[in-house]
Amino acid sequence: MTTDDETSGSGDDAEAGGATATRAELEKLREENERLRAQLAVGPDGVSHTSRRRDRVSLVMAVLGSILLVVSVLGVWTRNVVLDTDRYVDTVAPLAKDSEVQKAVSDRIATAVSDAADIKSLAQDALPEEASFLAAPIAAGADNLIDKAADKVVESDQFAKAWDGINRTAHDALVAALTGKEGKVLDFADGQVVLELQPLVSEALALIDDQLGTDLESKIPTDKLNAEFVLFDSSQLASIQREVSIMDTTAWIAVVLTLGLLIGSIAVAVDRRKGVLHVGVGIAISMFVVIVGMALGRELFLSNLPDVVENPLAVAATFDILTRFVLQAVRFLFVLGLVLSLGAWVLGPGSVAGKVRGFWNGILGRGSDAATQHVGLGPVPGFCAKYLTGLRVAVLVVAGLVLVIISQPTGMTVVVVAAVAVVFLAVLQFLAGMAGVPERSAGDAPAQ
Asked: What pLDDT score was predicted for residue 47?
C-alpha cells in the first residue's frame, strides 16, 4: 500500500522532469531560431547582407566621386583661369615664345603702327609736289621696316616681359569687373565696361622705336593712340558677378565632396583593398574620358573657326597652351588611378597577383638569406621585422605627402614617386628577411 509521502514525492519528480524537458525544448527552439536568423542574415555565398550593402554603398560612392572629380578638375581650372591673375599670367606666358602667336601679334602691332603713323601722308607732306610720286614707295619701304621691327620686338625678351604686363593688367581689370571691385584701368561709360589700352599701345610703340631708332611715339597724336576694349555691358554685370561668385564657391565645394566620396568609399568598404581598387579604377576611367573629350573638343573647336580668323595655327597654339595645366592635372590623376588600381590588384587573391607576390617575395627572400651569411647589420633587421607594417605605412604616407606638396605634379611625377616608394618597400622587406622572422608573425614571441 502506497503512503501519502511516496505519492507526493513521485509527483514532484514528474513535475521537475516536465519542467526540465520544457526548458530543453525551449533551448532547442532558441538555437533553431538563431540558426534561421543567421541564415537569413547571409546570402547564398555566405556574405552577410550588411556587408553586401556596405560594398554597394562603397561602389556607388566611388562612381559618384569619380564623376564629381571631372567637375572638380574642370571647375578649379576654370576658376583659376578666370579669377587667379597669377595663375592666368603663368598660363599665357608661354604664348609670347610660340612662333605662331608671335607672328599673329607681330602682324597686329605692325598694322596698328602703320595705321597710326600714316607714313604715306607724312611723306606726301614732306616731299615737294614734283616728288610726291615717291610717297607710295617710301610708305611701302617703311611698312617693310615696321614689319621687321615688329618681328624683332615679339622675339625679344622685352616683349615677353611686356606680354606678361599686358596680360596682368587686362586680367586684373577682368577680375575687378567680375568681382565688383573697381580696377585702375576700368572705365564705366555708356552702360559698358571699357578697358583703356592706351598705355599698352604706347609701350608697343616705344619698343618699335627702340628697334628702328625713330621717335614715332612722340610724333603720333595722342588721340590716335586711344584704344579701347569693351568687356561687356554693365547692365549684365550683376548677373555675371553672381555667376562668378557661385563658380568661385562651388569649385572648392566640389573638391571637398569629391575627396569625401572617394575617401568614404574606401572607409565604407568591407574589404579596404577592394575599396582602393574601385577608387583607382574610377579615377583612371574618369580622367581617360576627360583626355579623350578634350582631344575631340580641340578638333571640333579648330575645325569650326570663323573665316575671320587670320592664323588658325596661332589659335591652335593658344588653345594648347591655355589648356596645358588642366591636361597636366588630368594626366597626373589618370596615372595615380592606375597606380592605385595596380597596387590593390597585386594584393588581391587572383592567381596572377599571387604569382607576382611570390616572385617578389622569392627574390627578396633569397637575397636576404644570402646577405645574412655575409653582412651583419646589428639590430636593424630585427627592428624592421618587428615594425614592418608601420614602416610600410610610413613610406606610403611620405609618398602621398610628396605628391601633395609638389605644386604642379605630372603623370611622370607619380611614376617616379611610386618607383621610389617601391624601392623603399623592397629594402624594408629585404632587411626584415635578414632577421629570420616571418613577415606575418614579426611581433609574436617565439614559442617555448
From this structure: 54
